[in-house]
Amino acid sequence: MSLRTFLAKEPGCGWYGYQDIVDIDIKGFFDEVDHSVLLQLIYQRVKCPTTLRLIRKWLRAPIQINGKLHRRRKGVPQGSPISPLLSNILLDLLDKELERRNLKYVRYADDFSIYTKSKKEARKVGNEIYLFLKEKLRLPINREKSGIRRPSNFEMLGHAFVPTYQKGVKGKYQLVVKKNSWDSLKRKLKQITKKTKPYSFEERLKKLVPKFRERGWVNNYRLASISAKLKSLDEWLRNA
């Protein structure tokens, strides 16, 4: 489930009551994809023998290490246009398992988190999904980077969470843009708005707009509470 889908299904802020987050880090995901598991899943979907043969040869093409060729039995090349597709075929099993358990979760590629309402539930879910990844998908888990997080100490895909206070209501959080994402944007904008550069107001505006629209910054964070921040950013730009 994507972040947008999750919030669309949950009224309001979408995070009410989800106090404990299961954060699981798959260790070196692209290097650890098991070929036998992946190929079996592909065989179930693809019926063209030529396509299957090409995928198998591509996956198992030898790699050169210290001048010697080594055959691969696991891993998909990062940067290849079909690697994300093949990875999603594998992790579709994870999606189905989480949905079967009726769990709230967000996944982007191999980065995923599960949202629960108690630490007890989080421990139980975390252990069960750990076993599923290990036994069914043969994927190793990075124990040091995995754990149970509170929303206020958790970040995901450039987003963070802050508690909202309402009388008689506990466990309600607001989705925001994390600080270093704002700082990164401000650094880029400052390069354009430097007063030492001989740009007219119209020229500066033309250079600023793509940062927000064409590159999708506002669209990427449109689910977060950004209106107040954008107003302060506007003031900052006027005085930059």
From TrEMBL:
<dbReference type="InterPro" id="IPR000477">
    <property type="entry name" value="RT_dom"/>
</dbReference>
<keyword id="KW-0808">Transferase</keyword>
<feature type="domain" description="Reverse transcriptase">
    <location>
        <begin position="1"/>
        <end position="161"/>
    </location>
</feature>
<dbReference type="GO" id="GO:0003723">
    <property type="term" value="F:RNA binding"/>
</dbReference>
<protein>
    <recommendedName>
        <fullName>RNA-directed DNA polymerase</fullName>
        <ecNumber>2.7.7.49</ecNumber>
    </recommendedName>
</protein>
<keyword id="KW-0548">Nucleotidyltransferase</keyword>
<keyword id="KW-0695">RNA-directed DNA polymerase</keyword>
<dbReference type="InterPro" id="IPR000123">
    <property type="entry name" value="Reverse_transcriptase_msDNA"/>
</dbReference>
<dbReference type="GO" id="GO:0051607">
    <property type="term" value="P:defense response to virus"/>
</dbReference>
<comment type="similarity">
    <text>Belongs to the bacterial reverse transcriptase family.</text>
</comment>
<keyword id="KW-0479">Metal-binding</keyword>
<keyword id="KW-0051">Antiviral defense</keyword>
<dbReference type="InterPro" id="IPR043502">
    <property type="entry name" value="DNA/RNA_pol_sf"/>
</dbReference>
<dbReference type="GO" id="GO:0003964">
    <property type="term" value="F:RNA-directed DNA polymerase activity"/>
</dbReference>
<keyword id="KW-0460">Magnesium</keyword>
<dbReference type="Pfam" id="PF08388">
    <property type="entry name" value="GIIM"/>
</dbReference>
<dbReference type="InterPro" id="IPR013597">
    <property type="entry name" value="Mat_intron_G2"/>
</dbReference>
<dbReference type="InterPro" id="IPR051083">
    <property type="entry name" value="GrpII_Intron_Splice-Mob/Def"/>
</dbReference>
<dbReference type="Pfam" id="PF00078">
    <property type="entry name" value="RVT_1"/>
</dbReference>
<dbReference type="GO" id="GO:0046872">
    <property type="term" value="F:metal ion binding"/>
</dbReference>
